[in-house]
């Protein structure tokens, strides 16, 4: 009887240990590293092309299974007034267009990872949909990106074209309307999460 009870306790202990360790090895959460990440907004005008760099990013990614790149959640937040061009007058026009007095952040939240395809060596191509919120307007977008899960971190890289007017953002103007910007933007990102 004593041997039977001892064996049951050993099996139960191993089962509990397996449940806790398998959960830790399978489900993982990574936090965005602002210093190593980059997000650029590229646009055009009737004078020259322009670029904004996001200086303040935060966010998280959660995997159901890291080895298979089964993504549970992604949340990325950009501080709107951290988008800088290196020219204060352009930055002021950008902040006005983005209504940063009322809307401090730009956010992306994953809704669904529709497909994940392995490219080999810990790199995956992901097709997803998510909610992008700019200047207080939320819009569901499709977003394709690559995920590299090597080296104890996750690196998301990709780009997305958007139209400012879809988010009720009026393209900025300068010099009393003499300089006008195009409605279409390209967002390029390399997001490092550890």
TrEMBL record:
Pfam families: YceI. Residues 29-194 form the Lipid/polyisoprenoid-binding YceI-like domain. InterPro entries: Lipid/polyisoprenoid-bd_YceI, TTHA0802/YceI-like_sf. Keywords: Signal. Residues 1-27 form the signal peptide. Gene3D superfamilies: Lipid/polyisoprenoid-binding, YceI-like (2.40.128.110). The keyword Metal-binding does not apply. This is Lipid/polyisoprenoid-binding YceI-like domain-containing protein. It comes from Pseudalgibacter alginicilyticus.
